[in-house]
Amino acid sequence: MAAGGVRTETFVLNVGPQHPATHGVLRVKLELDGETVVNAKCVIGYLHRGTEKTAENRNYYQILPYTDRLDYLSPINNNFAYVLAVEKLLGISKDIPERAEYLRVITAELSRIASHLVWFGTHVMDIGAWTPFLHAFKQRELIYDLLEEISGQRMNNSYLRIGGVAADAPDGWLNKVSDFLDQFERAFAEMDKLITKNPIFIQRTRDIGVLTKEDALSLGITGPMLRGSGIKRDIRKDEPYSVYDRFDFEIPIGERGDSYDRYLVRMEEVRQSVRIIRQALKDIPDGKILIDDYKIVPPPKSRTYGSIEELIHHFKLMSEGFKVPPGEAYAAVESPRGELGFYIVSDGSSRPWRLGIRTPSFVNLQSLEHLAPGHLVADVIVLIGTIDIVLGDVDR
Amino acid sequence: MSEIFKRLKERFGDGVGPEVAHNGELSIYVDKDALVDVIRFSKDELGFNLIIYITAVDYLGWKRKRPVDKRFEVVYHLYSVENKSRIRFKVGVDEGEEVPSITSVFKGANWMEREVYDMFGIKFSGHPDLTRILLWEGFPGHPLRKDFSERRYVPLPPNE
């Protein structure tokens, strides 16, 4: 580029891979003209763990904990998509006990709120507001306490099982969730008050990273990013899985498709999740939490300890796993980031022939290369925040 | 015969088929020469306007009968926002064969095809930047192929 006879060159700036604003190990190569981005290129794969390859050599039980580690901010939703795919292959989707379905929904929505709180905290922190981050992480910790109580783990819960859930809610847990929601709604209103009408925040996000409907569809964007662009698509409503069709909730959408719209969409989603959990808490029935097909789920421990045949059965089931009928299935859930799908091809053995994982972060991150050109370097940080990636989910 | 398959058959003749349904999910096999047109037709005429996922499956050593006798199948998942329905297209490819890239129809295919190339070594002709995406340039082999052992350890690349 020549301006007044002075020759200028573009400058390449590496953002990451180790940088707090990249939310993990993401490297973005920015080509800059002054402070304006001319070209952006993402370099990913730093967290690639070969989950899909590993899964081909594990039986169906053993894969479950690996799924937690994809999108580690909402592990229950990952479990959810995986068990739905396996249950579809096994043909037991309709047999899952009601109570288990409700517990799945409650925990999945709690983990959606926790995930959105991390997004909220880090996104506004990247823009310069430190206090809301602390508020958000306090609430997130309270959710983790609840999830720890029901699943035994703070993060990476592995709470769902093929055929149900791992454990029933402890005594009083449902009331605790209800109490938490009362308190959370007040705290969330405060967070909302701190940021939503804040003029600095609005200036930093309004008209930044405008994603048109056409681009969003062409890029395969899903989740809050797609809804921020004005397309009303939520798998929980459009192709209801589990018991989502029984709840009354709204799908928020944006108008302009900019970062501020996406912010509003996610904030509203948190409130809608609270609504879903409240309805689920009210309607949750008593009953079993696992199917009683002992070819698929292990029989109760009391039986295993009582007779040698049962012990052998248990051993076979745990070491070899159960056989899944040949065929293929794709099951997707609405994770906090978009469509999370598992594509499983089975050859009839106890291990998947192929387990493909369609992660929302991987597909959504691609939009950064389309959105960044023309923006300032500081806006790229906003864009990374608004895409809401988890690098475990991108790299698998 | 499903309605969608009927319309595709009318338009493309021998370029498409057969169709297979698993667990209520429709898959349609497509000839690789017709692929780009089929995808474009599905997007513009049939309403499958959201690209979901492109992946591949390596059938080396597969014991059951398959509709197409090629080593790999590249699998395209599309979704229709209006009709709330899904479709899967499959293209059979053998070692060394190239598949036309659909990046001209869906921009999002870019990274997905790069991932398939990275993991399976299937090349996409017409792709703007067919490089590895999750692994580094110079990684020996393609890990999701069935003849790549899980226990094969690959040294890390030297620092740049």
Can you describe this structure?
The complex is a heterodimer of chains A (396) and B (160). Chain A is of the alpha+beta class and 396 residues long. Helix content of chain A is 50%, strand content 14%. Chain A contains 17 helices and 12 strands. In chain A, strands 3-6-7 form a 3-stranded antiparallel sheet. Chain A has a 3-stranded antiparallel sheet with strand order 10-11-12. A two-stranded antiparallel ribbon of chain A has the order 1-2. In chain A, a hairpin with a 2-residue loop joins β6 (27-33) and β7 (36-43). In chain A, α2 runs antiparallel to α3 (75-90) and α6 packs antiparallel against α11 (259-283). By secondary structure, chain B is α/β, with parallel strands linked by helices. Chain B is globular, with a radius of gyration of 17 Å. Chain B starts with a helix and ends in a 35-residue tail after the last strand. The model of chain B has no long low-confidence stretch (mean pLDDT 87). The A-B interface holds A 44-45, 48, 50, 52-54, 56-57, 88-89, 91, 215, 217-222, 231, 233, 238-239, 326-330, 332, 339, 341, 343, 345, 347-348, 353-354, 356, 358, 362-363, 366, 370, 395-396 and B 22-23, 25, 27, 49-53, 55, 57-58, 62-64, 75, 77, 81, 84, 86, 88, 106-112, 115, 119, 132-136, 143-144, 148, 150.
